[in-house]
Amino acid sequence: MHRKRKGLWAVILGTASTMMALLLAGYCEAATGWPQFMGNPSRNGTVLDKEPKLSPLGELEWRLSTQGPVASSPALWGNVVFFGSKDGNLYALDGTNGRTIWRFPTENWIVSSPAVSEGKVIFGSYDGKVYCVNGSDGKLIWRFTTHNGVHSSPAIWNGKVFFGGIDGYVYCVSIKTGWQVWKTKLGREVYSSPVISEGIVFVGNNDGKLFALDAETGQVMWRAVIGGPITGSPAIMGDMVFFAGWDGFVYGARIKHRAVIWRFKADAYIDSSPLAYDGKLYVGDMSGRLYCLDPYSGNLIWSFKTHSGIQSSPSGGAGRVYVGSNDDALFCLDAKTGDLLWKAKVGGNVTTSTALGDGFAFFGSLDGAIYKVR
């Protein structure tokens, strides 16, 4: 692990006064934040203190093109949008107009979704490092080196950063210093993004195992074994943890009892993360179908069919569910009925999750752009 106080690589665009005004406004508006992948450490696809006010039309407000596909889900803090691109850069944008405030270059793809806390932005890169940069100017604060690429999106909890590595480890480092607190070898690659709930870290790996780890020590408390890799993030609702895998099943497990109590068979393998929202569970599969399930029984409530596979993890807000598809579109559905409210067509597959603000939504596409819709 290498610490660095001076960021030599940040490219700063615009005036310092404009940049600082944006960030200060952002930090004062925590209620409109979406600070990490799937919104919060429990990865339940919601974070707002109040339901967002979103227009019913899904009108495109702006797009910004990068030099590579965008598979990193955006984080939103106040009026600033953070996301990574396969061009190797992390971007900070003015959420109002899409202008670049700064960008920070790494040495490989960025698929990991950034997490924002205490004025810091933390993200992983396929160059094998996790970076912490200053949210206001993009300057490097610290970096942590693993043994392989980092696909997993970091989760922040209790002053610590948790993430998985393609080297098969789950790591816990200090958000302040970047120093390692612990690491635990799980086996094969960890593409899954950790979930933290009540001092327990939940994460899957390519061995087809869901692990429950002690957040303070990294010790494995229990595990569940399924028939295929778990590349999506788990989700938490009350005493339930939900996860899905390449075996084509969705699972619901009681945390207290450390046991799976139901499973649901989808039409194809599942690469995305479940959404626990407003008393229901939503998950997409590679047949292009989004399912709404009862979280306590696994019974199907409704399903919606897109025209291609779903790798995007759904988000929820204002009684709606948002999910991208490999047919180059973002779909907005009524959360109760599954009825299509609108569809935003773009130039490439939408594999990112959607970050929801008060009156707008942000998502990326493999066409190399990030979009803002109202």
Automatic annotation (TrEMBL):
Domain of life: Bacteria
Residue ranges annotated for the Pyrrolo-quinoline quinone repeat domain, each copy included: 86-163, 167-305
InterPro entries reported for this sequence: PQQ_b-propeller_rpt, PQQ_rpt_dom, Quinoprotein_ADH-like_sf, WD40/YVTN_repeat-like_dom_sf
Protein name per Swiss-Prot or TrEMBL: WD40-like repeat protein
Source species of the chain: Thermanaerovibrio velox DSM 12556
Record lineage: Bacteria, Thermotogati, Synergistota, Synergistia, Synergistales
